[in-house]
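Build the 3D complex.
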Amino acid sequence: MSCREKRTRHGAAILTLFACFLLSSAGQAQEAANTFRQSCMSCHTIGGGKLVGPDLKGVEERRDREWLLGFIVNPSSVLASGDAYALKLKDEAGGVIMPTVVGMTRERAEAILDLIAGESQLEESQFAGLDIGDEPFSEADIERGRQIFRGDVRLANGGPPCLSCHTVEGLGGLGGGRLGPDLTKVYERLQGRKNLASWLLAPATQTMQPVYAKASITNEEILPLVAYLEDEAQIGTADTTTAQVIFLILGLAGAVLGFVAADSVWRGRLRAVRRPLVRGER
Amino acid sequence: MIHYLDQLLFAALPYAVMVVFLLGTIQRYRAQSFSYSSLSSQFLENRQHFWAMVPFHYGILTVLAGHLVAFLIPRQILWWNSKPARLYVLEVTALAFGIITLVSLGAVVLRRLTSAKVNVVTSKADWFLYLLLFVQILTGVYVAVFNPWGSSWFAASATPYLWSLIKLNPQIGYVAAMPLAVKLHIVNAFIVVGFFPFTRLVHILVVPNPYLWRRPQVVRWNRDPRRTGAIES
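Done.
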């Protein structure tokens, strides 16, 4: 093999390694963006202002990376250690404790901090959150939100409607589901439009996250949903036990009807033919 | 700790029970093929038997079919449920069949306890199976009442979880944060599958389906009782 051929082969190997490195870095960055969207965005923005948690734009100017890594990987243990800054964050969040993200490692936390640092340099980050404004919602917005909540208008990306797992007072019929919490007062619990909109943008509970990660709620659906839940919070009271009792009674009535139907269908079974035959034999 | 328990129950247990199910059913068929039966005690007592077993089977088969449909065509179920009135009809029907199954199972167990002849032929494995079935149906009815609407959230969460098991890539996030009754219902279902080969449940694998479409058979009963003696019903 000539020197020229050797040089060509070495060059190709270096280029391949470089390409692999770039692809791997791009993959990590994409994973960090996905993690931020799914696990952080319901409480934090980057440059969009405070939600439940603080705005993370330039967060490394406020705390050093080592502290941030420790807090992202295991917030509860930092809080349990009595760390003054962590306790201050908890107070500012109205007592809400940052949950531990399942599968979070130091390496993944590093990638997220790199992402935040990069996004902080931009004029407008993709994680600035949804700004709904302060204008009063129209009746049409509220009604559309009600229809989306109930499922009459299906979510564009195929996700299940809110009614599958949640209820609100005044929904009508047998109400909504009770796998998740009653949402009548969720607008107040999350302290306003912006927080609620951010929550819907990336639902962060462990049960909702995998479902809506592949079927996210669009901005056009979030606005009417926020309108509906804001309206509900003003007029409703979170008590839906009546619908639950009616559902149970209907189920019991259906079961009784089933037994009555079975008895009428099989009324003559064994009694009409076989037993008289046996009696006749005696 | 809880995270590891979830891994054990929702990522490891399903595969362990499937291995037991496959090896156990094959081995039992090879070694004791004539034991593949419901070991029916109808011959010993048939009045209570009919009024317990028939509703039980109608109930459990309907409820199981509902689970299977939500597993196979979740999008269509979500489409059906997109009108709350249709969702309510589906859920009330499912609850009614669940209650029928629960009450009938109670009748089945009562018969096993009160009929001396049937009691004698009831094994420890039978009693354990009844316990498993009771837990399964009770948690199912409890979930239907207290954590509705299962037909929708099963399609959205449980179905992708079950498919992830089939694809050998368990995504336990779908079920790890579910309420305790839901998790118990899922784990108990796995235990029933694991226990399947050692019980009379094996009759499910040898259901005489042709009975559904074969021509009716006329059984004539014309022997002379004076020669053979009277018969007990």
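DSSP finds 13 helices and no strands in chain A.
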